[in-house]
Amino acid sequence: MAEQAGSDADSKRLHERARRAVFGHLGPAILHETNNVLTVMAGVRQILKSGATVGDRIGTMIDEQLARMERLIASIRRIGPDELLAGEPRRTLAALVDALEQVVKLAAKGRGVEFLRGEIAAAEPADGEALALATLVLVLPLFPPRGAGGAARLELSGGRSARSVTLELSFTPLREPPFAEDEAVARALLASVGGSCDARRDATSFEATLVIPAAE
């Protein structure tokens, strides 16, 4: 019993460590999106103070910004520890890749990173958060700086066996070598929930195979 409790505590600690790493990369992008909403709200406030009529165009701008924030929040919830709300899809592999696509596109703005989606098998990982966090821990540090020029490509595909779910990722071209500590975080996190991470690289590309138990 004590050994199991210690294992659960280690897993929770590794989840939290991965969350900090991921949101360290996502923080600036999330602040940018939030600032867009605040800018629109401030503009509307000035219009109302002046006594002018708020036109349909302003209403459309507000609706667009709110919809962007709703999509962002929904994507983060699907890769995070929060319980899903009523009506939201289960954390199948396809739903998880949908959420990862939105988060990657948010982080990739101005960096020239294209998201490609390969074949995704019908499967449900036992710990979707661990799989998503490990993926982001590996790929976000590989993104080129904003305005660096050029283009990069991230491709995800997934499959399953009788007892496990596999997510394959490929990032090219590789401009900077990945950090060993990022790979260590991803590997330790997946291992804590019974999975594994096999990372490979050459002069121009980074690939990884992430394996996690399937939900029963």
Structural description of this entry:
The chain contains five helices and five strands. By secondary structure, it is of the alpha+beta class. A five-stranded mixed beta sheet has the order 1-2-3-5-4, covered by helices on one side. Helix 1 crosses helix 5, helix 2 crosses helix 3 and helix 4 runs antiparallel to helix 5.
Topology overview:
Layout: H1 2-50, H2 56-79, H3 93-107, E1 113-120, H4 128-139, E2 152-160, E3 164-172, H5 180-192, E4 196-201, E5 206-213
Parallel strand pairs: 1-2
Antiparallel strand pairs: 2-3, 3-5, 4-5
Tag the structure with descriptive keywords:
216 residues, alpha+beta, Heat Shock Protein 90, five-stranded mixed beta sheet, 52% helix, disordered N terminus
Q: Average the pLDDT over all residues and give the rounded result.
A: 81
Largest sheet: 5 strands, mixed
The parts where pLDDT drops under 50 for at least 5 residues are: 1-5
What top-tier CATH class fits best?
Answer: Alpha Beta
What is CATH's topology name?
Heat Shock Protein 90
In what order do the strands lie side by side in the largest sheet?
1-2-3-5-4
Q: Helices and strands, in N-to-C order?
A: HHHEHEEHEE
Looking at the structure, what is the overall shape?
globular
What is the CATH-assigned architecture? 2-Layer Sandwich
- Strand percentage lies at 15-25%
Number of strands: 5
The CATH H-level superfamily is Histidine kinase-like ATPase, C-terminal domain
Please indicate the count of domains: 1
